[in-house]
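User: Structure please.
Assistant: Input sequence and predicted structure:
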Amino acid sequence: MALFERKELGVAVVGAGRIGTHRSRLAAQHPSVRFLAISDAEPERAKALGERVGAQVASGSNEDVIAHPDVGAVIVSTSEFAHVEPVLQALELGKPVLVEKPIAMTLEDADRLLTTAEKYDTDLRVGYIMRYKRRYFLGKEQIKEGRLGRLIGATGRVFNTRAQAFEILKRSADATPVLDVLTYWVDMMCWFMEGNPPVEVVCRGGGFVFKEAGYPEVDDVSWTIMTFADGATVNLGICYALPAKYPTAGQSIRLEVIGTDGVMLFDEDHKENILYTEKGYPHAYVPDHNLPMVFLGSTSSGDWALDTMYGPIGDETRSWLDHLSTGRHCHLATAEDARQTLEVTIAMEESSRTGDAVKLPLGEGH
């Protein structure tokens, strides 16, 4: 077995919100991280998180922490609409970047990031954390080993509550359930179908909950059919309009993948572990939202317990830091992967809006 020499890292985390807090705590615990800087548009929030994790620098200036001479790698955990500028700055300085999904909100911005990464020969990875759930990377391994034969297609759906959807939309009104969440499962299917690109999307959506709440462009439910180059078809659906007190703390997922020689069935509704408490269970994503009953383990990013993060965001962050410090392989989504996924989700929204099938790749103006 190969032994990896470990080098020390200096890391900046840009954005001190929920995900930035996870990433900062994980970076602070990693044995290769010797310098940690945190920034946020709200300096007091950066300072509070910096004190909590023992960061050497906490600032209200993203530019300052990215440019800090002791920073060699950057995690961008800002809101979706604010990804582009800090990623561009880091790439231009030759500092590898891990940015939360989606890579950007438009293909034009995504292409700017890809061009800059190529120009400065800098690695850009995108946080599609579902790749780091054990069941799914085990699934990818079975596909690589040929145990399913040739993939024929798949079907999947993801449910969550309107409480979490409203929290996302409050942060970024353009981060619809399709662009912000179904994107995980588009990435998953493109990863499973690697080398077989999507060529057409048909999507239909509708509903009342979000439109009546002041989000006229947001559907309660969306259902889509993706067609891949070899004719394989995938049906994906999303509903983020379940009642606010439905007992999930994150995504409830079903995914089925069908091949010529086998099938994989993933059931991730989390109904097997139930907690009921009259004291209320705090929702990890929605402030002051407590559930009397919850499916334990349903928080999408994972859970902190006994001062350790268990789950995909922990495994993904540690894998990226290991990759930087030792050169060991990691299977985080590449910028090219993320750009393809963004294109598909944009096509889904266009198809739902127009009622037409949308061919891929998309033309200019997206």
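The first helix runs from residue 18 to 29.
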